[in-house]
Specification:
Layout lengths: L1 E2 L15 H16 L3 H8 L3 E10 L5 E12 L5 E7 L5 H18 L5 E6 L8 H14 L9 E5 L5 H15 L20 H18 L9 E5 L3 H12 L3 E7 L2 E4 L6 H10 L11 E3 L1 H5 L5 E4 L18 E3 L8 H9 L3 E3 L1 H4 L2 H15 L5 H26 L3 H20 L4
Parallel strand pairs: 1-3, 4-5, 4-6, 7-8, 7-11, 11-12, 12-13
Antiparallel strand pairs: 2-3, 3-5, 8-9, 9-10
The chain binds nicotinamide-adenine-dinucleotide (NAD).
Nicotinamide-adenine-dinucleotide binds next to α7 and β8.
Amino acid sequence: MVATPLLPLEAATPAHICPFDQACSYLEAAAKELKLDQGLLEILSHPRKVVTVSIPVKLDNGEIRVLAGHRVQHSDILGPYKGGIRYHPAVTLREVSALAMLMTWKCALLGIPYGGAKGGIALDPKQYSVRELERITRRYTSELIKDIGPSVDIPAPDVGTSAREMAWMMDTYSVNVGHAVPGVVTGKPLSVGGSRGREMATGRGTMIIVREALADQGKTLAGVRVVIQGFGNVGGAAAELLHEAGAKIIAVSTSTGGIYSEQGLDIAALKAYATANHKSVVGFPQALPISNADLLTLPCDVLIPSALENQITKENVSQVQAKIIAEAANGPVTLEANQALEARGVIVLPDILANAGGVVVSYLEWVQGLSYLFWDEERVNREMEHLMVHAYRQVIQHSKTRQISLRLAAYTLGVGRVAQALNDRGLYP
Ligand code: NAD
């Protein structure tokens, strides 16, 4: 029997960049700008509930392994907790806690009635069979049964998970409570109450925010040179939609390496290639190989990190040549790198805005499910675009009025709304 220690898991995170400390630093900066009361800041700095469960799973070879699963519920001041489930070897409680906090500000910034949460299991999905992943997902869901629900906490896909895992979670929850509960998760397959447009939603939202930022400079997406790190749910969709809109995607990478073509990549052909090549873009014909490190420093108009956090750091920021960085991933630019980019006048479109398309369509999926009325894709995309552009305009306006960065403006709007609601609701008892 192989036992995986439940805690501490922190060793998996690079010691020098703690995602939760970074999230708290952004919160503190927003609190300072808002002149928030110290007590309120104290409340907002702490997750409301942290759950760690052990997930015993029987592998296909009969061996039993015990994995650690987390769910961190940061705040439900504005509505039910909402946030993705991550399957990745580097998942730690601190990372999940940071991502839960980001979800709170993101939902508040977009004006959707949710709080923030995140979940994750430290595992490499590539090392498990589909049946093993199903058993892991079902046991994890069943361990969290009292903590999730359509009006309590609604998980969604994140790194390493997709509609498939959401269907297993929905089924496990439904079987346990005795009736079908589609609203317990979002990002589900259409067959069990998913929303049209959800799969592409995060990438579409990123495309919309980049398009708006270019429009503010009097430019369009046509011919704009784009580099994308990560080619999964988010990066793949962003690549496809930007390509359709006329942008030139000159480089793309996955965890195994990247590819580069000065003429621009054929994204439809690349998607087909990656699907047939274990989700890797390496070896794609008519493109040159490039390392993930070199990809981030390519000369380009727009850089879209769509993989993991802490990719642009104080070590490589001076070599980054992009004029606009859209944070499709959560936390890809570290605090120090962000300061250096701001000082150089690089536009950093912050994660809680640039990747909010996913949670917006998750919200629209939940609304459709609760009202038993499903929309066509055109309507879903229209409603999402409306909320994204509205939030973008508010961030730009706030940044100009207060003379602060887009990140601080976005955080100040999100944190400010949660603090206001907390003030209005009062502290129980
Ligand atoms: P995913 O698992 O579908 O894709 C991740 C991609 O990143 C894969 O192509 C993988 O190969 C690549 N990758 C991993 N490590 C890499 C590395 N070191 N260098 C280059 N590429 C690497 O995950 P996703 O759902 O697309 O999520 C990506 C990011 O977007 C995460 O930060 C996630 O939190 C954020 N996000 C996702 C959603 C969503 O709806 N899925 C919503 C908001 C934010």
